Amino acid sequence: KDDSITKQGQQQMINVAHRGASAHAPENTMAAFQKGVDMKSDYIEIDVQMTKDGELVVIHDTTVDRTTNGTGPVGDLTLEEIRRLDAGSWFSEEFTGEKIPAFEEVLDAFRGKVGILIELKSPELYPGIEEQVAEALKERNMNLPNNEKIIIQSFNHDSMKRSKAFLQAIPHGVLAGMSWSDVTDEQLAAFATYADYFNPNQNIVTPDLIDRVHAVDMQIMPYTSRSQEQADRLFHLGVDGIITDYPEHVYDHPVKKGA
Ligand code: G3P
Ligand code: CA
Q1: Residue 46 C-alpha to ligand 2 middle, in angstroms?
Q2: Which PANTHER family is this protein grouped with (predicted)?
Q3: Is 18 a catalytic residue?
Q4: How many whole angstroms separate alpha carbon 222 and alpha carbon 133?
């Protein structure tokens, strides 16, 4: 028993279901997103790409090979071809018949029920995707500062600058892989001119990095926690949110006295 733990304060932690609650249902499907809601996540994270005929769809890889019964690049298939694919049975028989969702279908089903962390995945393959995502949000009045929690993020930082110009009231995030482990204060300050979140690979997170992100008034939500130990480490380091396949690993921990 750790006597230093007090129940008096509970640290709030933003709980983001990565590709939905993807440990429990096939990633980036309606079933995984609903599971994230059921498990009380604050946000579902979704990966957005574009079909051959210019429709926005939700899938992580740039090909359909790993997560469906089809083959080929997302951008070489029409929406109709994509919608015919089974995106569930690779995960388990129980999810046979799950489809690759359309982006607008996810907005319509989940807006107001849970926050949506929208990742533009490989936007360099899909010229104009930033404007198209912005249009879908604007059609629904989701581009305005209101209670609907929407964040847009990407590893492609130029894409985030473009997106921010279309959606000035929506928070944006820069994703940062391992190559950003030596990110400088100057680089963070430049990100802060258009982004509100610096979301790094969890393996580059240190107390110093968290302090420096906060010093430029950004928040930090590392990815991707896949064990209780990883979630606990990030929690005790004091990040703002945790992007996880297991929403149940992220909860309001008791705060340690003096910590
Ligand atoms: O939300 C961040 C995380 O999703 C980035 O990595 O490869 O899972 O899209 P990836
Ligand atoms: Ca993602």
Answers
A1: 6
A2: GLYCEROPHOSPHODIESTER PHOSPHODIESTERASE, CYTOPLASMIC (PTHR46211:SF1), GLYCEROPHOSPHORYL DIESTER PHOSPHODIESTERASE (PTHR46211)
A3: yes
A4: 24
155-200 tens-digit pLDDT: 999 999 999 999 999 999 999 999 999 999 999 999 999 999 999 9
Query: Probe ligand 1: pick from 119, 157, 202, 226, max atoms within 8 Å of CB?
Result: 119
Residue matched to tokens 């107001």: 112
Has 60 been annotated as catalytic?
yes
CA angle 189, 149, 30 (to 5 degrees): 120
Set 24, 60, 172, 249: catalytic member: 60
**Separation CA 100–CA 107 (nearest Å):** 14
pTM of the shown model: 0.94
Q: In CATH, which superfamily holds the domain spanning 5-256?
A: Phosphatidylinositol (PI) phosphodiesterase (3.20.20.190)
The confidence score (pLDDT) of residue 5 equals 41
pLDDT digits (tens, 9 = 90+) for 21-72: 999 999 999 999 999 999 999 999 999 999 999 999 999 999 999 999 999 9
CA 225 to chain centre: 12
Provide the percentage of residues in the chain whose pLDDT is more than 70: 93
Distances (CA, A) of 27 to 30, 57, 73, 213, 231: 9, 13, 18, 29, 19
Is the ipTM value over 0.90, yes or no? yes
CA Rg value for the chain: 18
Place of tokens 């994509």: 82
18 lines ligand 1 (CB under 6 A): yes
* 62 Cβ below 6 A of ligand 1: no
